[in-house]
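Forgive a beginner's question, but might I ask you for the amino acids of a protein and the tokens describing how it folds?
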Amino acid sequence: MTLDNIFQILGVIVVASPAALLALLGLPMLVSRPISEAMQSNLTKVAVLAGLFSALAILGLMLAFDSRHVVIELGNWVEIHQEDFHFHLKFVFDRLSVPFAILSFVLCGTVGAFASVYLHREAGYRRFFLLYALFLLGMIVSSLAGTIETLFLGWELVGLSSALLIAYFHERPGPVRNGHRVWTVYRFADAAFLIAALTLHHLTGAGDFDGLMGTGPWPEGVAATDSWHALIVGLLLLVAAAGKSGMVPFSGWLPRAMEGPTPSSAVFYGALSVHLGTYLLLRVSPLLEASWALSGAVILLGLVSAVMGTLASRVQNDVKNALAFASLTQVGIITVEIGCGLRYIALIHMIGHACLRTLQLLRAPSLLKDYQSLENAIGERLSTGPTFWERKVPEAQRSWLYRFSLERGYLDGFLNEYIVRPFVRLFRWCDQQERRWTRFAGGGEHRESDHVAVYGDSLEDVV
């Protein structure tokens, strides 16, 4: 057996293990024969360990044989000759994708083991692990994607599982409404991603990343396009990355995402999903070298997001929101590092921060209990001295900063007015036109009550 065959087998196992887990957890639910919690937990462990050991084996072989760029192609799944379009399923194992895939398996495995106990006998236990498997598959596909279509496939799986787990406690209106909000913001960011994918096809004739960034292994690739095209595609991908990672101006959905269970909050908005935007910027980082304006935009976005996260995290009244905005601070710093060309530093920073934030979010509930027990034992609150802001910033400016931070930079209102409301109005208008057309084609009369019957909630209820 040749080395290429070994790489092919191990690569297929890395991708197939989360896909098999999703199938094994989903099929029993479809036929109304759900499996036990213990069986779900064991299947999850086996799938995660199989994928993790295969990814580690690939990393070991790459280091041993000095192979820095291994490509696994699974052929064209969709091909349109008239439009010269094809969906090519291609996975790339290199210095960027393999560490991120290993990180995904390690943290998902940790959170899965925690959730099996944390959600024991919870009514939605099986649903949680089904969405967890969907998220793991999306992360692995996104990490190893060699084409922009493959990356978008994983990107959408991550977004879908994220929105559904935010609405996990669906018996309450708050989580469902916040899940809708996050999904709406994701739609806006994904629209920019799709336009970037179409632009890439127009420029190179394919969605292969090599066609845009050259054939060199990461991070040595050189963008195979001029600065103007690099700026256009890069800005579109920057909007997509900002929406997925909760950077400014999309940061308003971060506290809403905390409605989900603690395990999903840890692996999504503390560890993996929140870093997927910066991972995309690392993947297309050769574009930044081709356009200084794009590098400047990335640095500016990272700085603004880091400052916003720093201010907002200091005034939150619950630990999950505080940690979410603290994650935004680090994501902003990582984005600045990417814009400055410090790719390996950004990758190491991203891996370290993901591990630390996962531990903090999982430990937070018990830490609060320990903190309260300590205060009860000593009979008074644990006080701290004056903060840096109290010592250095005048009171008038502190009051303004506090109000600004408490309102989270008024980004929630910005999202309501300029993203959520226009999208909701547009799709409701499209729904009305579709109903009118179908009723006209069927020979009936249009009834305005059809729209109200399906969408009876007001626009304010949605946003």
Notes: Residues 3-367 form one domain. The chain has a mean pLDDT of 84. DSSP finds 20 helices and two strands in the chain.
